[in-house]
Design a protein that fits this description.
The chain is built from 5 helices and 5 strands. The protein is of the alpha+beta class and 137 residues long. It has 2 domains: 85 residues, Winged helix-like DNA-binding domain superfamily/Winged helix DNA-binding domain (Arc Repressor Mutant, subunit A, Orthogonal Bundle); 52 residues, Dna Ligase, domain 1 (2-Layer Sandwich), CATH 3.30.1490.190. The site of one zinc ion has 6 residues, from loops.
């Protein structure tokens, strides 16, 4: 392996390590950049995006789209096949923009009811419910 390829692999490993360490949490590309900065390993945002996308392609991490004003969330999934099928939904406050990351369990009953009663399948790529948060309502 040439040194350039090695360097690239190292970044990918570090990224994956970080995602595993925050398993169960949603993180954004911005969080990743901050983490690398804190580690003294500055990595450009475009590299972070590229690596994240490639991990999504490999099925190791999930990507949840919010909306045009909010960056996408990423979450480590690994080889957890069941998790892959559950989508993670989000509640977004229309006033302050606060985002609540719902676990798969919280939306599952609704997902199942929609499917059983109406044969309706929720789009896992549209995961945002809009409303008002605790502070704004
Ligand atoms: Zn709010
Ligand atoms: Zn999220």
């Amino acid at each position: 392996m040439n040194s350039r390829a090695k360097y690239k692999t190292k970044k990918r490993d570090m990224l994956l390590e970080y995602l595993v360490s925050v398993r169960g949490k949603h993180i954004t590309a911005g969080d990743v950049c901050e983490y690398f900065k804190a580690q003294g390993a500055e990595i450009g945002q475009s590299t972070v995006y590229r690596q994240l996308e490639s991990l999504v392609d490999d099925g190791l991490i999930g990507k949840y789209l919010i909306d045009g004003n909010t960056p996408a969330c990423f979450e480590f999934i690994g080889r957890d096949v069941q998790h892959k099928k559950d989508s993670c939904y989000h509640c977004k406050c229309e006033k302050c923009g606060k985002l609540i990351h719902l676990g798969g369990d919280e939306m599952k009953p609704l997902q199942e009811q929609l499917l059983n009663r109406y044969g309706f399948v929720l789009d896992p790529n549209r995961t945002v419910l809009y409303g008002l948060c605790e502070n704004c309502k």
